[in-house]
Amino acid sequence: MSKKVTIVDPPEGFNGPGFYAGPLDKIIGMARSYSLWPLPFATSCCGIEFMAMQAANYDLARFGAENMRFSPRQADLLMVCGTISKKLAPVLKQIYSQMAEPKWVMAVGACASSGGIFDTYSVLQGIDKIIPVDVYVPGCPPRPEQIIEGFMQIQDMVRKESLRRRDSQEYKEMLESYNIS
């Protein structure tokens, strides 16, 4: 159950921004959804499509994500683009565990989602084997429009997520199943 925030009368002489009235978790969700800081983890051809998505033709900045972070401690959206080898999997898991809560993950491309065409002993068959994934973007490689659609789905999830979801027993058990605490 969300708490209601209601401010009836602004202070005398207040000329600042307008007041919001509504559930606090909805207001925070809206603010979070337009201020995501992605951490790109691009390893192969999907990384090129990710770079195209940042260019002027597609411009991810119009969704509030122009501030790319290359430090996991400052990012809240991990975008895994491309093939992940089993040797690279512990690095990806460590990066995920270094990110602060709340955090979201997007698997971009067939390789990050399911191993793609590389059904070999050395390629991880989907990053969901080591970290939880919120949105999968299909394609080999996916078009920039598809990646933007995936980003918009993440924004929708962020906007609708309860503030208490991350404290739930179900969420903690899910992290324990991935050996992430």
UniProtKB/TrEMBL annotation:
Gene3D superfamilies: 3.40.50.12280. GO terms for cellular component: plasma membrane; respiratory chain complex I. InterPro entries: NADH_UbQ_OxRdtase-like_20kDa, NADH_UQ_OxRdtase_20Kd_su. It is an enzyme of class 7 (translocase). It is found in: Cell membrane. GO terms for molecular function: 4 iron, 4 sulfur cluster binding; iron ion binding; NADH dehydrogenase (quinone) (non-electrogenic) activity; NADH dehydrogenase (ubiquinone) activity; quinone binding. Keywords: 4Fe-4S, Cell membrane, Iron, Iron-sulfur, Membrane, Metal-binding, NAD, Oxidoreductase, Quinone, Translocase, Transport. The keyword 4Fe-4S applies. It catalyses: a quinone + NADH + 5 H(+)(in) = a quinol + NAD(+) + 4 H(+)(out). [4Fe-4S] cluster binds at C45, C46, C111, C140. Its cofactor is [4Fe-4S] cluster. Its EC number is 7.1.1.-. Pfam families: Oxidored_q6. HAMAP family: NDH1_NuoB. NDH-1 shuttles electrons from NADH, via FMN and iron-sulfur (Fe-S) centers, to quinones in the respiratory chain. The immediate electron acceptor for the enzyme in this species is believed to be a menaquinone. Couples the redox reaction to proton translocation (for every two electrons transferred, four hydrogen ions are translocated across the cytoplasmic membrane), and thus conserves the redox energy in a proton gradient. Belongs to the complex I 20 kDa subunit family. This is NADH-quinone oxidoreductase subunit B. It comes from Apibacter adventoris. The lineage of its organism: Bacteria, Pseudomonadati, Bacteroidota, Flavobacteriia, Flavobacteriales.
